[in-house]
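Translate sequence into structure tokens.
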Amino acid sequence: MTIRIAVIGAGVIGRRHIELVMSSNRSTLAAICDPAPDVAKLAQQHAVPYFQQYEELFENMDLDGAIIATPNVLHVPIGIACAKRGIDLLVEKPIADTVEEAIQLVEVAEQANTQLMVGHYRRFNPLVQKARAVIQSGQIGRLVAVNVMWTLQKPDAYYDVTWRTEPGGGPILINLIHDIDTLRYICGEIQQLYALTSSDTRGLTVEDSASISLQMANGVLGTIIVSDATPSPWSYESTTFENPDFAHQAENCYSFMGSRGSLAFPRMELWRYADPQKSGWNYPLTQEQLSVDRSDPLTAQLAHFCRVILREESPVVSGSDGVRTLAATLAVQESARAGRPIRIYEQFG
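Result follows.
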């Protein structure tokens, strides 16, 4: 069976999805939908139907799935329209602008028995999967703490786009949300957090830096430093070599610290004592380099979406997962505004 998938939204990530759908041996690009006039030429180049409005798309096309890569504000109305028509959907992150809207989309999809995935694609990166396996297998003992660094310098021209200079356009909702989801996937649910933000470096309305202290539901403590205003080699994109648009740095950006060892990510350096009976700061640690085969997580995500459509697998990143990641990310902003810790579960049960 060839799976018919439409891509709604033909921006940077939408065009990447278009390429992946067309190159997959399990899917076919059924249509492209985007109101921008130049997208009609893109659809013509790929010899597929073009629609300006998603309502017109759904009225005229028989679809198995849809990838929603529109601006965030459109994720929920388009997602609900898909779900009500029985079209399985992959929604780019974040699932919605608010937790309440995200829950509404999840509930509609459940009622319609429609499969809903959220595009937190890092879960498909073999490096992330290996880190999760190491930690959940107990190789470093009981997880004690985790440290995350997402620090780099965005080009000044990045902020020539007006919406990026306003609340919601900064590194918390654009970038940190990926790290929040990765933490949840590897370490477990975030129970509460306390955050401070600053816009002093760039002097814009939107934040450029944040410091976050968090506690997982399993008792693990964590810290996150986020900034898009500092020359630094410590970010997921730079260190994993996942995004070709970033200069690559042979550094680590996450540290997972356990009761019997630690893991530095993404260099996958496992630190432990050679003899567990000889532990403590007066004994040297040994380093083991873990081997991981690399592959493109977006390609793996699409292959998984196809299997979800065929009901061969359940979504790795479900709608409920998307809600929880969004809630934790929005809690960072709320904590900074309120000047107090925020318990994540209080926001949506």
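Note: Residues 153 and 228 are 5 Å apart (CA to CA).
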